[in-house]
Design brief:
Layout (H helix, E strand, L loop, with lengths): L2 E6 L3 H16 L3 E2 L8 E6 L4 H19 L5 E6 H5 L1 H7 L5 E3 L7 H9 L4 E3 L20 E5 L1 E2 L10 H5 L3 E2 L2 H13 L4 E5 L17 H8 L7 E4 L9 H9 L3 E6 L7 H6 L6 H14 L4 E8 L6 H14 L3 E6 L16 H26 L3 E10 L4 E5 L11 E4 L9 E10 L2 E6 L3
Parallel strand pairs: 1-2, 1-3, 3-4, 4-5, 5-6, 7-10, 10-11, 11-12, 12-13, 13-14, 17-19
Antiparallel strand pairs: 8-9, 15-16, 15-18, 16-17, 18-19
Helix pairs in contact: 8-9, 12-13
Length: 442
């Protein structure tokens, strides 16, 4: 049996795949190390979505290669989106890599690892459209929260996105399987479930009956004892109907925080992106959601420098942000990805795209400062994520903060606050964009 080290890169969905590989290998008798030094085999689970993600993956492969040359690690297996996308290039240009595993072959990780340990060079690329095989996980998040992946793949075919060709068509997990996993997580101490997929809002539409099942799934998740918060990521605006909004508004365990990626607001650009709906629909939806869900925090992602974006279209986006005052925004410069329709369209140069992303970030920082200012004096429920001895402060998150994406609340307390417990914190100020507070006396 071997010592296996992991490096997990990219999104939370990738992290779940990594946790499942860990479980399979551990169940087969291998030991999962907390780091990679001393590993007989290192698995680097990569992202290959945009240039920055590809660069990060390559840097980690080269770093592992240096450790291999120094005799500190054994073989290197590259898995995930980068391997799926660039299998030939990796083998030709990175001799330190001993094996590749595609996104359709995560379930084959045990025989692949064992063949590699026997001296074989392996390239395994299975069907990326096949149904997901149910599997346990070794949680790599803190024990009190976990990601709950409800589907794999994507059918949206946005013009700028390569994900469908890397992850396959949309495949929902059976609801009974999702609920069983959620109950097991709750039994292990998880208090916050973060519901994820490439597109959570289409959950169930590919199953027999072709009915969107997300509202019912969310109702059932809220019935699970031990779960205190249910957080929903990656809702697409065109699927936000009244049934779903009613569930989001009436279920107390669903935090009033929605991640709805819109990418842009200009109608022409949205059409060129192959996005459904238009700017007026998005703006009306956000207004409706704020009316139905008091205290709602909205997160979105935007791309600047998209094909067709001139100064007029960019200013329309800026004016929308000033009106909508979204609390959480991620802005990314357009990356022309080979194999996508948008890569062949005429678009502003990369420098302009990057400058526009910086302008969005500046604008958004002022909006976030105003939002943080509005919270001063309020007492909010906080999920404690830990204690920093150097700061002599506890830190945690309100409903408005998703882990590893948004900020923290730093707070003092007269007692010991256990990690993974909830407490009430009075907000007293902010520092570097994050909230400061003190535990409220009960």
């Amino acid at each position: 049996m071997a010592n296996i080290g992991f490096i997990s890169l990219g999104c939370a969905k990738n992290q779940v795949n990594c946790e499942q590989m860990m479980y399979r290998l551990q169940s087969a008798g291998h030991e999962i190390l907390p780091g990679i030094e001393g590993a007989d085999l290192v698995i680097i689970n990569t992202c290959g979505f945009i240039d920055s993600a590809k660069s990060e993956a390559i840097e980690n492969i080269l770093m592992a290669g240096q450790l291999k040359e120094a005799g500190l690690v054994g073989k290197i297996l590259v898995t995930g989106c980068l391997s799926q996308r660039y299998q030939d290039e990796i083998l030709q240009e990175m001799p330190e890599v001993d094996g590749l595993l595609g996104t359709g072959s995560y379930d084959e990780v045990v025989p692949v690892v064992e063949q590699m340990l026997s001296g074989e060079q392996i390239c395994r690329f299975g069907d990326i459209h096949k149904p997901e095989e149910e599997c346990g996980r070794v949680l790599t998040t803190p024990q009190h929260y976990a990601y709950l992946k409800i589907a794999e793949g994507c059918d949206n075919r946005c013009a700028y996105c390569v994900i469908p060709s890397l992850r396959g068509k949309y495949r929902s997990r059976q609801m009974d399987d999702v609920l069983y996993e959620a109950r097991m997580l709750a039994a292990d101490g998880v208090k916050e479930l973060i519901v994820i997929a490439q597109d959570t809002s289409r959950y169930g539409k590919d199953l027999p009956g072709h009915k969107r099942l997300l509202p019912e799934l969310l109702r059932q998740l809220c019935r699970i004892d031990g779960i205190h918060w249910v957080r929903v990521h990656y809702l697409y605006p065109d699927e936000m109907d009244d049934e779903l909004i009613d569930v989001l508004a009436t279920e107390d365990k669903i935090v009033k925080y929605l991640d709805i990626p819109i990418q842009h607001i200009n109608d022409t650009i949205l059409k060129r992106m192959n996005r459904r709906g238009n700017g007026a629909y998005v703006e009306a939806l956000f207004n409706k959601l704020r009316q139905r869900l008091p205290g709602l925090v909205l997160r979105t992602s935007l791309i600047t420098g998209l094909p067709g974006e001139g100064e007029e279209e960019f200013q329309e986006l800026c004016q929308f942000l000033k009106r909508a005052k979204l609390e959480r925004v991620g802005a990314f410069a357009f990356s022309p990805e080979e194999g996508t329709p948008a890569a062949n369209m005429e678009h502003p140069d990369q420098e302009i795209a990057a400058q526009r992303a910086e302008i969005i970030e500046e604008l958004q920082s002022r909006i976030m400062d105003d939002y943080n200012e509005s919270l001063i004096g309020k007492t909010m429920e906080v999920l404690s994520d830990g204690y920093d001895p150097e700061e002599d402060l506890y830190y945690g998150r309100t409903y408005a903060d998703s882990p590893d994406i948004d900020g923290r609340v730093w707070f003092t307390a007269e007692r010991t606050v256990k990690t993974g417990t909830f407490c009430m914190v009075t907000i007293t100020g902010s520092r570097d964009g994050e909230l400061m507070g003190e535990e409220a006396v009960q």
